[in-house]
Design brief:
With 317 residues, this protein is mainly α. It is built from 15 helices and five strands. The strands form two sheets. It has a three-stranded antiparallel sheet with strand order 1-2-3, with no helix packed on it. Helix 3 crosses helix 5, helix 7 runs antiparallel to helix 8 and helix 8 packs across helix 12.
């Protein structure tokens, strides 16, 4: 691939302004990268940069140029919701944008490099899994916020409740729309990948309260709320969901930090304690293989056996 040339100095200021908004088209990305990448690569660059800009806006800092500390914190926080390979790609994207605008590449700074090396080590299979988010955590949070009329409190209670009861991934929660709420024979469900996931009466009541107070009748179910308490149109994203679980840790005064995976770990263990098999838990959590639920409930032997079979299958495909 040809070496990319930095922008002409006369074009940098205007381009910098556009990049600081994060709102660039694929055509603009293709132009600034001198038509060197495929459409899929350009889509990845655009999405990665949007995530970084959103983070910077939330932190009230400038994306371009960004401080080394900003990029390090971005990597550390994003690593709680995404695979380390995705975080590495985002850091590279930020570096590329800086180089094209003739700014110093923050991704090459030793502070960022050390942080990435540490995150990679933490993400190895041997590293500790997510802290379980248990039913008693949920009960305590609901008790604390039961009388609150704040939209943020109602929404956060729904995030914790739906993730736990439905064993939802962050992406599944973020993708929920009003149209995914259904009722059949007096039972409330949410539709997740065409699977009906039942919710308790208390969560169904909380959902109705949320819809009534927000006036939401279509589109994303759970949405961002700004610092002034105003409801937005955009759905919650993985970063927002991460912060909701960080808030749970703070409210419970836990010494550990919950992540987006925590409710799936806690719910899996609870179901196993109720006598459910790994296969049943796999179905309820929509896992492709029983490896992860087996690991979550502590059956590490079964987990490694399944992972081994899947690795062999991939090698022979």
């Amino acid at each position: 691939m040809k070496k990319l040339l930095p922008l002409d100095p006369s074009d940098i200021e205007a381009s910098q302004t556009r990049f600081n908004t994060g709102a660039l088209s694929i055509e603009e990305w293709s132009s600034i990268t001198q038509n060197a990448y495929s459409k899929n690569s350009l889509l990845s660059y655009r999405n990665d940069w949007r995530v970084f800009v959103a983070f910077c806006q939330e932190q009230n800092v400038t994306p371009l140029p960004c401080a080394v500390t900003t990029l390090r914190r971005f990597a550390e926080i994003t690593a709680n919701q995404r695979k380390i390979s995705a975080v590495r790609r985002m850091v590279i994207t930020v570096g590329l944008v800086h180089k094209l605008h003739q700014f110093k590449d923050p991704s090459k700074h030793r502070e960022v490099k050390y942080a990435m090396a540490r995150l990679l080590q933490e993400k190895l299979p041997e590293s500790r899994e997510a802290t379980p988010f248990q039913s008693y955590h949920l009960a305590s949070l609901n008790q604390q916020l039961a009388s609150s009329k704040r939209l943020k409190d109602i929404r956060d209670r729904l995030v914790w409740s739906l993730c736990y009861e439905g064993l939802l991934k962050r992406s599944e929660l973020a993708a929920l729309s009003v149209e995914d709420l259904v009722t059949a024979e007096g039972q409330a469900f949410i539709l997740v990948k065409e699977q009906r996931v039942p919710v308790s009466d208390s969560v169904a009541t909380l959902l109705m309260d949320w819809l009534e107070k927000t006036g939401i009748s279509q589109g994303p179910l759970l949405r961002r709320i700004n610092k002034h308490g105003h409801l937005g149109e955009a759905p919650l994203d993985p970063s927002s969901i991460y912060r909701v679980f960080r808030r749970a840790s703070a409210l419970l005064e836990e010494s550990v930090t919950f992540s987006g995976q925590s409710p799936r770990v806690g719910a899996s263990r609870s179901l196993a304690n109720q006598g459910m098999s790994i296969k049943q838990i796999q179905y309820m959590g929509r896992w492709k293989s029983p490896a992860m639920p087996a690991q979550y409930v502590g059956n590490t032997v079964a987990s490694e056996q399944v992972k081994s079979r899947y690795r062999r299958k991939k090698l022979t495909d």
